[in-house]
Every structure is written in structure tokens, then in C-alpha cells.
Amino acid sequence: MVPPPPVSSPSPADSSAKGGSAQLTAKQAYRIHSDYQRGLSAAQRDLDQAAMGKLEGGLAVQMTRAGFKTAEMEGSSVAAGIWPNPRVWIPRHVAGRPDWFVAISTKPGVGRVADLMSSTPDGWRLVASAADTRPTPDRFPVIATDDDGYATSLSENATGLVATPRQVVDAHLASMERAEIDPMFADGPWTSDIALFWQEERAQLEDAGWSLTLSYLPEGPVRALRTADGGALVWYGARSTDTRKVERPGARVALKGAAAVRTGNRSFAHSARASYGRMYVTYIPPAGSPDPVRVLGDWSEVLEGHGD
Question: In terms of Cα–Cα distance, which of 293, 299, 278, 110 is closest to 187?
Fold first, then answer.
């Protein structure tokens, strides 16, 4: 999960409900998410990778464990605490499919996090999360609810939008992989800024006699909720790899940030590669809207780094 702000934990909640055939209630969802947050906070304090297997699943648990490993290698800690006052939105139960819900929390001056919890054979797990940790996050759309207060889930191929959720996911990842700005998306830290960053990184490497190859591949299911204006909020994940290879021997290259930690802060003469887990939450306008698609948050962790 995206690191929380430094606030105190709420009072303990009852044990989490397991996924089942009955419709999940708001009370159960709040309890499940509260238990997750308390368990995560304890695991973060101890950098307890084993504990995360009971709290998260899929790419999410790999990312959190990778973050713990980076902190251990660096001799540092990770932020621990609780995002306050979440609101939950629950889609109606569909027979034969996992139940899931989202919990969204905003703390003024700190940011906003959007968690997605899913039922599994082993209980409830966080499987997606994305945050905007700018002091003033971009505006968030209103999630539509029916007369009973339940949200409407959409398939990855849902129509009635400027593009289907799957088309938006593919376009977003392709834009970053090509390091090209896509006019489908509003400018921002997880769209145009990323493309420009990779353009600058590639230019610097080429000047030093190195090449840069990028890969962004989708990972896990695409989950979406209908918004009140007829659009959609979409959660999705990806694995990215940036590979640097020497083309003109001479200059050495070092990775940056957490990738540098994972490679022992060494520089390399032949190749250097970093792999990341990434998650996003994105708003898709309804069909006919002139508004762009807006990426509203992300979560990124270095999974591994290598070089020679």
C-alpha cells in the first residue's frame, strides 16, 4: 500500500469477514479495511514481509515486500500509520465472482489514497492501491450508487465511455513505454511528466553512448466503478522494466533512487536494468465528453535491479 500519513491508529476492530455468497455490507467493509490498515501498520514498523501474505495479494504484496527489502538494504524505515476516515463503495455481489470494494481516504495537506480490497479463498486482501500525495490532489469524481447505496461495477470492455477501461489501460501503458505524450490523457505526474522524464533520460544516455529500452506490461485484473456523471473509475496494475545497454564503451551508468539501493549503489559498464511494480487509478469520462482521461494516483515500487 502507498505509505500513510503519520496519524494515530483507531480503536481495534473485530476480525475481518470472509468473502462469501451474501452481499457485503458497509459495516463489514469498514471492519475489513480497518483490520487491513492496522495489520499493515504493524508490518511496516517491523518490515515484516511474512505478515504481508495475510494482508495483500497479487502484485500488491510483491510491491510491499520489495519496499521492505529496499528499506532493509538501505538501513531505513518505511512510513507506518493509518489513513484516516476512509469512505467505502461496494459493488453488488455477482455469483461466481470475487467480492470487492474500494476505500478512499483524503487527508488535507497530505493527499488521497484509493485502496481496493478483494475476497480470496484465504480471506480478504488488498490487491490494488494508488495515491496522490500532493498537498492538493486533483479533483476526484463522485462514484455512482443505487437506491440501496451500492456501487455499479463495470467490465474492462464496458462501453458508454470515451474508451473502454481496457483500451485506456493499454493506451496509458503504451504512452509510457514509447515515452510519448498521448492527447487522450490530461497532463500530469503519471502521464506527460513520465513521458518527458523518459525522453530526457534517453537523451542523456545516448549522449553517454548508451541505449534505453522501456517495457510496460499490464498485470492483474482491471476493475472499474461507474461514476455519477456516467464515466468510470478504473484500478489497474503493470510491471515495467527499463533496460540500459552500452553502445559505445567508455562511460559507466548507475541506476537512481531505490533502484540504486537494490544494486548496491554500483555503476555498470555493460548493462543496467530495473523492474517496477506499478498501480494506477484513472477516471474515464462518459462517451461524448470533451474532457480528457485523468490519471488520479499511482503506487510504484522497485521490484529488483541488476547490472554488469
Answer: 293
